[in-house]
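Q: Got a minute? One more chain.
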Amino acid sequence: MGSLFRSEEMTLAQLFLQSEAAYACVRELGELGKVQFRDLNPDVSAFQRKFVNEVRRCDEMERKLRFLSNELEKAGIESRPPGNIEAPDPQDMIDLESKFEVLETEVKEINSNKETLKRNLLDLIELQHILGKTQVFFQEAEQYTLISSAYRQGAMAEPGTSEDEAGKGLLESVEEGQAVTAASQTKFTFVTGVIARERLPVFERVLWRACRGNVFLRQAEIEDPLEDPTTGNRVYKVVFILFFQGDQLRTRVRKICEGFRATLYQCPETADERHEMTVAVRKRIADLESVLQTTQDHSITQLQDIAQEIAIWQQKVTKIKSVFHIMNMFNLDVTQRCLIAECWCPVEDLEEIQQALIRGTERSGSTVPSILNRMKTTDNPPTHFKTNKFTSGFQHIVDAYGVATYEEVNPTPYSIITF
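A: Always. Here it is, folded:
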């Protein structure tokens, strides 16, 4: 006879369960927690067992619940402890599946909307920084263009040369066919954009080598980091503007910018147009921030409602899956109406196990009772120690180092004093 100091006497039992009552009976035995089933189909793969479809449905529900749990964790919302929830009936799986499908769709849609709004807001903030920081760039570029144009047209004379001599030299050059060509009269064009700060040094070197020094780069760092809409990480970025001539260089510059994941923006050439665009961008930023805050509040409200129930749902799905996993260990009789199972159970608890089978049969509405038969065997039984609320934690610690053999003295009571 077993006790706290020695393992329980175990026996091998055979169960005959009607198909309609098998789920309810296994659920009752699971809540009792005093039965260890044997796998009667060791050579059958998991994909060929009778209740594999039900297990897959539970796996899919668990995936959706994990997704919802991750969203709660990202939002910093804690779920409510569920307590002990009884395994639901099999027909309740349909309601749970439809509920999880709706919740997953709604949360994904909200996340997609938030990401789109954040991406649009990021684009506007970057454009605002470009408009604010490139004013000096344009002024310097205009001065450089005027000086370069005057030099090419011969307006800049060498020191000590009179205006007449300078004009004469220019006329002579025209007569000799060395006048200002169409290419020399081409205005500087520019490209503005934003790039991550860590990519900027390599970006500069590649531009210099690929364009052979024919691109003029100016940059200004954005002081505050910007949030990446996809990852949520804070990223430091730099505003840049590139001055160059010709369509060939334009194509080359754009390809290099795409390769370094730089975001390009259209920036007006005149100061008045830039001022008007800045005012419009600020207004759009304010509107987007208002819409984004409303969306965020709706998301938090929905996640808080999910947090009240998700722990209960997880426990229900886990128990449903456990029941079908155990039922996959059973065999069918020749009539395909009865499930045959084998299990180890304590001899002292046979009466409780029998009562659990009776309750399961009654709850399922089956008219055929479930049968439990003791079997003789030479197999070595598993070790089972009786525990209570105080000793269960210490028993788990001792079992982590090694489980005693069948009917061996339990070292846990003697080890409790050492903790």
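A: The chain has twelve helices and eleven strands.
Q: Perfect, thanks.
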